[in-house]
Amino acid sequence: MYKFNFNHLHYFMTIAREGSIVKASKKLHITQPALSHQLKLFEEDLGEKLFDRKGKRLAINDHGRKVLEYGDRIFRQSDELQQVIKTGEISTSKIVKVGVISWLPAEHVYEFIRPLLYMSQIKVQIIQKDLASLLKDVQTDALDLILCDSPYSGRSKKLMGKKIHSEPIICLASSNEKLKGKFPANINSKKAISYSEASEIRDHVDGFILDNNLSLNIVGELSDASLALYAIEKGDVIGFLPLTKAKEALRGNRVKKLGEISKARFSLWAIYKKNQGRSSIITNLIKRND
């Protein structure tokens, strides 16, 4: 009887999610040659290649995606087994994994997942990564969907995007900031914070600066919207945020609105696999937020 090697499965899943043996070896703290050998043994045991080699790059194939899907179930059930042993209660909860780009305002994430929090048999996991990594994960079923600020523009025909929400992008400063003149000319040469990751909102802000012939002194690049708001409130800097993120601070007079980007808006997008089925949790969640 074949004895399944769970270490091999764990190594394979890490390679699939990290996208390369180099990255996976760093995460697993083992050498690249050793990890390559373990993957080779696992593929030999299964009798199938799990990746297609494209030059130096590994691309997970259909066999690999099936193994990854079953691997998720296996390790999820092992977690449930530990819970049963500890508590004596059998969990029938389904885990919904939502990938989120790091700077996305928490208010939007919470409003989107809120219906799931009231479902007794649902557990929600939020995973923050860059968009490229999240797209890999949703294609390999490591995630159920992604929340980001841009539509899906990749090549995969298995993924689709749905716009959930849009709102103005506003320019903010501390309530103590005194600027002369009209917006946007009054922010020229001001100290400003920007976004450290490539994103749709960063593109909108950069385009706005270029269109208005502005020159801002970028003193910091952040990947967290709450930290950006705090920096604007406490520091001598300006910044651009979605309106919802700033509402509470505006009501409390901790910051003030200088103006807004008239030609662009912040958008919240959900990206997920097609053919979810009419009754699936993801399909119903999208409909509730439509």
Descriptive notes:
This protein has 290 residues and is α/β, with parallel strands linked by helices. The chain has 3 domains: 6-65, Winged helix-like DNA-binding domain superfamily/Winged helix DNA-binding domain (Arc Repressor Mutant, subunit A), CATH 1.10.10.10; 86-165 and 269-288, Periplasmic binding protein-like II (D-Maltodextrin-Binding Protein, domain 2); 167-266, D-Maltodextrin-Binding Protein, domain 2, CATH 3.40.190.290. The chain is 42% helix and 27% strand. It has helices at residues 6-18, 21-28, 32-46, 62-87, 106-117, 131-139, 200-211, 225-234, 243-251, 281-288, and strands at 51-54, 57-60, 94-101, 122-129, 145-148, 159-174, 191-195, 217-222, 239-242, 255-273. The strands form 3 sheets. The chain has a 6-stranded mixed beta sheet, with helices on both faces. A two-stranded antiparallel sheet has the order 1-2. Strands 7-8 form a two-stranded parallel sheet. Strand 7 (191-195), helix 7 and strand 8 (217-222) form a beta-alpha-beta unit. Helix 1 (6-18) crosses helix 2 and helix 1 packs across helix 3 (32-46). It is elongated and about 75 Å long.
Keywords, separated by commas or semicolons:
alpha/beta; Arc Repressor Mutant, subunit A; D-Maltodextrin-Binding Protein, domain 2; 3 domains; 42% helix
